[in-house]
Each structure stands twice: as structure tokens, then as C-alpha cells.
Design brief:
Number of helices: 3
Order of helices and strands: EEHHH
Strand order of the largest sheet: 1-2
Strand content: 15-25%
Helix content: 40-55%
Number of domains: 1
């Protein structure tokens, strides 16, 4: 199975984002859309990717995190 890498422009810079093997194309696209939301919220690229992983786990895998992180993600997703 080949690894999918997508190039994304974030804050006027080009970055590569890896698709997880367990991630469908639809879920990957939704994670990209979440990252794009963070662009206007003064969040740096590495943090945006980290938060997108948490967001994806919460949304698609029903993973549980601390209340503070949960609240941060839900606020960013609104």
C-alpha cells in the first residue's frame, strides 16, 4: 500500500501532510479541512497537524482526551 502525501499551503508556506494508512480519503480530506480552519487562528503548522490528529481521533474513533484538550478542539472546530 502506498503512502499518500498531500502538499498544502498553510500561512503562505508549502507543507507536506501524510495520510495515515488507516485513514480513508474522505477522513483525510476532512482533516485537511480542519487544518485549514486553524490557519486564521494563529496556530503554527506542527501544532495544527497535532491538533488535527486529535480532532480526527475524537470524531472518527471516539477517542477520549482530557477535558481541556476536548474543549480546545471543540472550540477550534466551531
Amino acid at each position: 500500500m502506498s503512502k499518500l502525501i498531500k502538499e498544502i499551503i498553510y500561512k503562505n508556506k508549502k507543507y507536506s501532510l501524510d495520510k495515515f494508512y488507516s485513514e480513508s480519503n474522505n477522513y483525510f480530506q476532512q482533516r485537511i479541512d480542519f487544518i485549514k480552519k486553524l490557519e486564521t487562528k494563529n496556530i503554527e503548522w506542527k501544532e495544527a497537524v497535532r491538533l488535527s490528529k486529535v480532532w480526527s481521533n475524537m470524531k472518527f474513533k471516539n477517542c477520549k482526551y482530557t477535558k481541556a484538550l476536548y474543549l480546545k478542539i471543540t472550540k477550534l472546530d466551531s
